[in-house]
Amino acid sequence: MENNPTWMPVVAAAIGPKDGRWLMHKRPAEKQHGGLWEFPGGKVETHETPEIALIREIEEELGLIISAAALSPAGFAQSIASDGQKQIVILLYKLERWEGEPSALEGGEIGWFTPEVIGKLEKPPLDVDLARQLFAETGE
User: I need a labelling partner for 69 at 20 to 30 A (CA). Which of 13, 26, 49, 95 fits?
Assistant: First the structure.
């Protein structure tokens, strides 16, 4: 049996809709994919489930308090492993209930956008796939 390449599990939240708009996070310029808009989230640590990782990431990044019961699976996207890079698999969850007002606690900026505008935002390739899946599902 061949060695299986390693992969990195990542979680992201489609937060909304709020007045027909969804929250997007613009990555800080100095980070990978800096200046691009994405669904907020981050890496799943080895001791975490995807839901626990997303609860932690959303609190760290946006200051929102969420519960696992408020998360529902909305899709996934994956990269192709190449040149020693790990394959990335992003699990997208829809989040329609939360406590608090979001703010960009780790840099960058946030904004609320309609699905049409999100389609036009510059995004990393996997977020393009996630947006397509999310809005095909919601019919927006």
Answer: 26
Q: Are 24 and 118 in contact (CB under 8 A)?
A: yes
**DSSP states of 54-105 as a string?**
HHHHHHHHH--B--GGGEEEEEEEEPPP-TTPPEEEEEEEEE---BS----T
d(CA 3, CA 134): 34
Burial class for 92, CB neighbours closer than 10 Å (0-12, 13-18, 19+): buried
Asked if residue 58 lies in contact with residue 40, where contact means CB atoms within 8 angstroms, the answer is: yes
Hey, what domains does the chain have and what are their CATH numbers? 7-138 (3.90.79.10)
Name the pTM for this structure: 0.91
Torsion of CA 115, 21, 15, 121, to 10 degrees: 40
Residues comprising the chain, all counted: 140
- Token pair, residue 91, equals 């699990």
Tell me: pLDDT of 111 over 80: yes
Q: What is the pLDDT of residues 8-64, one digit of tens each?
A: 999 999 999 999 999 999 998 888 888 999 999 999 999 999 999 999 999 999 999
